[in-house]
């Protein structure tokens, strides 16, 4: 039996309808993802409908940028395998290179793919090539990074400002109005980093919280550890840490433990290794949700368009932060530190890739 997005659970579909009662269509792309409020055009039913036998292409900004991006690729490929109508799924890695992303998307257009999924390297790196795809009649699905053009068919955006503000609001509550904080940013120039930082700035408005150090850790453990070691050696007097990604959070926690120091309040993310640290050491934290299953949602959006479904142009992903008890529900000691939650990977795949 053909697998389609209609197989999403009835509970999830009911949740979509209840949370956005105004919304038609009611395609369920991913738990926690809803149509954006305000001006939100609809892609009319049948616009991109195509017979089975599709080729779907994906331009990733950097598959090996960190452990999260590796899993996004796995989630995307696993979702593509669930759909019998997808004959071929082409995943191209821009490797954080803007010129490579342009070439990748133009290559997919030349191959005559039926849909293209884009994770932009920067807010402008994919604009011109996405416009060429749209002009060629190819639907374009955008996620995990905003662009400075409307030349795409539908987008699923993780609400980077929301992500950063959830962590920022929590940190202000825990360090007080006059707290001193470090800021660990992600990849310089990437729209997700820029917008998460904007969310932090929103949280700090009207407070006297002082950013005493701000560095880029590239969303990587090794780079994050080097940054945190330097910050600690230069000035360990810090009340809290805003970290844009869990690999950097894990690294900073390890640095404080390495120096035998008390771990200050520090923001985290839905990463299995971080959850294990949090549970074991009991420091103060919050986990902003940014699931790698956005990769699966992107494939589902492409499938919906090719099946002739209606979709909104703009979808948002604004989940609440997770506390320690929810982290305990997801943590798996039989899997490695490199798994990210929530995930839609089959158990067999989780064990094969991440099993201890």
UniProtKB/TrEMBL annotation:
Cited SUPFAM superfamilies: Periplasmic binding protein-like I
Keyword Transcription set for record: no
Top-level taxonomic group: Bacteria
Name of one Pfam family that matches: Peripla_BP_4
Residue stretches spanning the membrane: none
Alphabetically ordered keywords of this record: Signal
Record's signal peptide: 1-23
Domain Periplasmic binding protein: 64-310
Subcellular location: Cell envelope
Main location: other
Entry annotated with the keyword Cytoplasm: no
Sequence similarity: Belongs to the bacterial solute-binding protein 2 family.
Protein's UniProt name: Substrate-binding domain-containing protein
Taxonomy of the source species: Bacteria, Pseudomonadati, Pseudomonadota, Alphaproteobacteria, Hyphomicrobiales
């Amino acid at each position: 039996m053909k697998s389609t997005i209609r197989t999403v659970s009835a509970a999830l579909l009911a949740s979509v309808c209840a949370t956005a009662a105004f919304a038609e269509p009611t395609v369920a792309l991913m738990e926690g993802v809803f149509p954006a409020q305000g001006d939100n055009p609809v892609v009319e039913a049948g616009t991109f409908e195509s017979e089975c036998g599709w080729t779907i292409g994906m331009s990733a900004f950097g598959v090996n940028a960190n452990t999260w991006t590796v899993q996004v690729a796995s989630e995307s490929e696993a979702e593509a395998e669930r759909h019998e109508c997808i004959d071929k799924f082409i995943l191209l890695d821009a490797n954080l290179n803007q010129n490579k992303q342009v070439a990748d998307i133009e290559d997919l257009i030349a191959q005559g793919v039926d849909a293209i999924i884009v994770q932009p390297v920067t807010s402008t790196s994919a604009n011109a090539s996405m416009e060429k795809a749209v002009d060629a009649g190819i639907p374009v699905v955008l996620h995990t990074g905003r662009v400075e053009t409307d030349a795409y068919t539908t987008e699923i955006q993780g609400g980077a400002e929301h992500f950063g503000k959830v962590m920022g609001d929590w940190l202000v509550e825990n360090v007080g109005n006059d707290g001193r904080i470090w800021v660990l940013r992600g990849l310089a120039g990437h729209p997700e980093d820029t917008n998460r930082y904007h969310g932090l700035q929103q949280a700090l408005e009207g407070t006297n919280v002082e950013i005493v150090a701000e560095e880029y850790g590239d969303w990587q453990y090794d780079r994050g550890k080097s940054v945190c070691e330097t910050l600690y050696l230069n000035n360990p007097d810090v009340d809290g840490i805003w970290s844009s990604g869990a690999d950097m959070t894990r690294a900073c926690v390890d640095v404080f433990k390495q120096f035998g120091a008390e771990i200050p309040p520090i923001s985290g993310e839905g990463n299995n290794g971080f959850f294990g640290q949090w549970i074991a050491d009991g420091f103060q934290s919050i986990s902003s949700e940014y699931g790698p299953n956005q990769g699966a949602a992107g494939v589902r959006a492409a499938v919906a368009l090719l099946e002739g479904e209606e979709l909104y142009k703009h979808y948002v992903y604004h989940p609440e932060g997770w506390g320690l008890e929810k982290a305990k529900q997801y943590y798996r000691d039989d899997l490695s530190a490199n798994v990210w939650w929530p995930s839609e990977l089959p158990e067999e795949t989780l064990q094969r890739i991440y099993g201890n």
